[in-house]
Every structure is written in C-alpha cells, then in structure tokens.
Amino acid sequence: MTDYAGGEVLPHERTHAGPKQDRMRLLEATGADTGLLFMVVADASGALLEASRPGGEPIAEARDLRGEGHRLWRVTDAAAVARVQAALAAARVIIADGHHRYETAVEYARRHPGADDKLMAFFSLDAPGLTIFPNHRLVHRVDGFSLARLSESARRWFEVAPLADPLAFRPTNRALGVVTADSAVTLTLRPDAFDALPWPAGTSRAWRELAVSILHEGVLKPLCDVSDEKLDAGTHVEYTADQEEAVRLARAGRYQAAFLIAPTTLPGAAGGRARRRSAAAEVDALLSEAPGRSGLSLYLASERLRRADPLRLASGATPCGFALRLDVRATVTRGD
User: Fold this and answer.
1) Cα separation, 163 vs 174, whole angstroms
2) Which residue has the higher pLDDT, 241 or 331?
C-alpha cells in the first residue's frame, strides 16, 4: 500500500472521517482485515488476463442469491505467481470500491509497522466482461420541490424536454432524465453552458464530463439545495443501479424524483477525484462472476494470527479476470 501522492493507487472519491474511524476501531479490536478492495488496472495487452489464467478445476464453486456463478482456483505455481506479479508491478491502479478501507489500511500500517499488506482483487480495465452500471439518484426531503420549478431553473444551463417513456430513455453524460409521480423531463446540458456551471475549483475536465458530476454540480446542489453536507449525512439522496426500479419508486411517490444518469467511464473517473461518497458507486465494478461481494473475505493482519506458509491466490478464468493480492498470508471465504 502507498499514499495517493505516490501515484501508484488512484482514488476517485473523497472519504469521510466517521467511516474510517469505524474501520480503524474494527481493525484495532480484531487484528483482522475483513474488507476486500476492488481495484481496476489497465491491461491493453491482455498480459494480466493471460498470466492469471488458471489450469485445472476450481477448488470451489458457488452461486449467489443473484444467480451469479463464483469459482475459486488456488494457484501455487511459483512461475505463475511471478507472471501475475510482473504484470502488476509497474501498473497504476484505480480503486473501484474501498476508498475508506484503503485509507484506513494505510493509516493502520503507519501505526503498526509491518502490517502493510492488504487483500485486493484486481480486475482488467480492458476485459470484455467488465460492466459498470449507473447509480441513479432517488431524491427526497427537498423543501418545496416541484418538477415545474426545477425545469424552469434548469433552463439556465439545460435544454428541457418532455420525457414520454422513462423506461426507454438512455441517458448520456450530458443528458439526464428526471421522473416524478406524474411527469418526466430530460435535461440536456447546452454546449455553451458547460463552462458556466459552478464547478468546484481544482477539478479536471475529465471529471467534469462525468454524468454524476454534471448532475451534482449543475442540478442537485444549485437547483435542489442538496449540499455536500446533506450528501454526507445521507438524508436527501438514495441510489439504485436499476432504472426500472428508479422509475417505479418515483411514480409511486416514494421519492420526490428519480434522476436517471449514464454510468461513469473509468478513465473519466481517474481524471479527477470525486468530491463526495455519492459519486463512488459509479465505478463500483459490478462484475460477472466476481468474488463474493456478499460473502466474507478475512485477511489476518496480525502476525500471531497468520499461518506460517503464505497462501497465494490468483484467478483469471472469469470473463473479467482477476487476481487477488499475491502477498496474502491467509484468507477465509464464506459464500451466501
């Protein structure tokens, strides 16, 4: 693990003190790292996928509650492990999921010299199986909210048009949908208005081009008074990756509005660090046959709990390909 300043690990979100304090207390109390990190890495040549491709039968197979298959191989061949290490050695990686866990682990290592290993799963950015879903926003508790008022205010920067079929709508980075109980519109950012949005200082052009950035900086904050503090508190915005669910909940009046947005591209996310946790889910890599996000992965951080012989894991037979961090000493996994 390294600090972000070193440029080897790239974040895409800002973190908050409270969650990191909780994770640190858990680490200090248990001496065990219970949080797997999900990382993505460029692999245009396919070297990582090829190097981590296992042979033989998996040692375990399971199907989770969503019906997705999970397969686990144990790779003990020293040459195979070395090939995966070589493929990752000079790579810069993006944290797809686990910013709070990563930063907590870095701080834990400062407090406990030698405890500088972290359980990670690496996914190829170039693998055909990598799928990134959008995280549509479900907004509530906005004082005086109405779609008519929002539409009128939005005309300062956006073209506003009726949206007849929200389920068929396909958002783009600069075109989002807004659905309420009885109506729906599209908001399309005008080309001449892009630079006029109230962008936070120090954010890159790539980050500003993201759908989530345009939504938060051009709509939710200036037009709905959903401030960073309210996002932090989790009082006004909830999320779903399912567009049908977002529309259904808005139509039922469960929320004041559903904001339908396009998924984030990873190169764009790497171009500028997102300002709040709410932007994080855009780059959660929801991967076919990914290792158990709903299960338990336990890394024994304490030397007295580690096994004497390293257990080295690697896998690449999923459509995405992944390699768990190679210096893990012991893991315990339990599927649903």
Assistant:
1) 15
2) 241
Strand-by-strand arrangement of the 120-124 sheet: 9-10, 93-97, 37-41, 120-124, 322-324
Burial of 3 by CB count in 10 Å (0-12 exposed, 13-18 middle, 19+ buried)?
exposed
CATH number of 136-282: 3.30.1760
Residue 15 Cα distances to 107, 195, 238, 259, angstroms? 13, 27, 18, 23
**Structural element, H or E, at residue 33:** strand 32-33
Averaged pLDDT, 147-155:
98
Prediction pTM value? 0.67
Q: In the chain, how long is the greatest CA-to-CA distance?
A: 66
Predicted local distance difference test score (pLDDT) of residue 101: 93
Residues facing residue 298 across a β-bridge: 332
Alpha helices in the chain (DSSP H): 17-30, 47-51, 78-89, 99-111, 147-154, 205-208, 211-215, 221-224, 228-233, 243-251, 266-270
CA 302 to chain centroid, in Å, comes to 28
pLDDT at 70 over 70: yes
Contacts of residue 251, defined as CB under 8 A and 6 or more positions apart, other chains included, come to 179, 181
Place of tokens 């783009």: 172
**pLDDT for the residue numbered 265:** 67
CATH 3.30.1760 domain span(s) along the chain: 136-282
How far, in whole angstroms, is CA 246 from its chain's centroid?
19
What is the CA 205 to chain-centroid distance, rounded? Answer: 20
CA distance 68 to 290: 8
pLDDT in tens, 172-222: 999 999 999 999 999 999 999 999 999 999 888 888 998 989 999 999 999
- The dihedral region occupied by 51, where left means phi > 0, alpha psi between -120 and 50, and beta the remainder, is alpha
